Write the structure tokens for this entry.
Amino acid sequence: DVWFVVGLPVYLQSVLNWSFYEVGGFLALWVIGYGGVQSAAPVLLKYLNRGRPPQAATIQFWTFTLTIVPAVIALGLMSDWNPNAVIIGGLLLFGLIFAINSAVHSYLVLAYTDDEKVALNVGFYYMANSGGRLAGTVLSGLIYQIWGIVGCLWASVVFVLCAGIISLKLEDPKRQHPYPSLAVGDGE
């Protein structure tokens, strides 16, 4: 959120001279595409993990991988590469990795939760997520005003890197939940 919510649309319109409709249309298509990727993420994860459910190492891998993307976008913009290509290509890669990361988070929140505390822990997860989104939105506008989109991207790197470092403390879930079946009528 620290680079995407305020910084990106303002950058697209004010620096790259995209029209209001181009910015809105592009971001709408990106969100739709992201939703499609996120809906396929459990199947992709099951394939990548060879059928094993996500572990602590899974979230660590995807979080540290996500850290690289805004850094590459920032470096591309600082290197005077074609900014349209850097932003569009970077957003496509970011969306893919972020969707997988989000699916792993959702799985692990439940995998770490005792059955009697599911509602409490899921509620806490969404509350923390909302608080992070609010902070990211405020910081996106503030950082963009001071350091521009590149500053927003580097701030994103710092925040995701901090999340990755924190994730190093995670242990594997004690209970292993199988992946939910995605086939209609499948008895698994």
